[in-house]
Amino acid sequence: MHSGKATLSIYLAHRQALVNYASGIIGNRTQAEDVVQEAYIRFSAADEESRQGAPIDRPVNYLYRIVRNLALDWARRASRETPVAVDTSDLVTITNDAPSAEEALLYRDELRVVAQALSELPERTRLAFNMVRLEGRSLQEAADRLGVSAVRVHQLVKEAVLHGARKLDERKG
């Protein structure tokens, strides 16, 4: 491929079909949209790397392969996380996993650092993060509400997460 614009145009031209494809594997359209967003990010990064070396031969096929692999990974993970029926007689032996007072203080302090980090971000980035990560909206719902593309919402959420992680690392270091 030749440019990031070409990568984006391929993605946009096939986005709907990719979501349908991933949705067939996962069984959930909202999660399929997340998979396709992640696939675009990986596709874009691979395209960047290919500019220094051998170009990607059939980019559309490559993009579909990324989506398929991510969707299969997602489906496998979801099947492992499916709750198993618990015999109620075992409930007496379950230990209390509630955090200790010390852990609760630590988590509260980390939450304060992350909240402060989020308050430093531009409003649109904060809104994108809140809608996707806290309210559980899909990237497309957040994009429609913010008047930007779903790709841009994913970038904004990623920026917010990375900013929060940097602030936590600064505090620890």
Major β-sheet, in short? none
Order of helices and strands: HHHHHHH
Q: Can you tell me the number of structural domains? A: 2
Which structural class best describes the helix and strand composition?
Answer: mainly alpha
Number of strand elements: 0
What's the helical proportion of residues?
A: over 70%
- What characteristic shape results from the CA principal axes? globular
Fraction in beta strands? under 5%
Number of helices: 7
Low-confidence blocks of residues: none
What's the multimeric state?
Answer: single chain
What's the Cα radius of gyration? 20 Å
How far the N terminus sits from the C terminus, by CA atoms, comes to 41 Å
Mean pLDDT reading: 84
Describe the protein's architecture and organization.
This protein is mostly helical. It has two domains: 4-80, no CATH class; 101-172, Arc Repressor Mutant, subunit A (Orthogonal Bundle). Helices cover 76% and strands 0% of the residues. It has helices at residues 4-26, 29-52, 59-80, 101-119, 123-134, 139-146, 150-172. Helix 1 (4-26) packs parallel to helix 3 (59-80) and helix 5 runs antiparallel to helix 6. The model has no long low-confidence stretch (mean pLDDT 84).
Give a brief rundown of this model.
By secondary structure, the protein is an all-alpha fold. It is built from seven helices and no strands.
SSE arrangement:
Blueprint: H1 4-26, H2 29-52, H3 59-80, H4 101-119, H5 123-134, H6 139-146, H7 150-172
What are the key terms here?
173 residues; mainly alpha; Arc Repressor Mutant, subunit A; 2 domains; globular
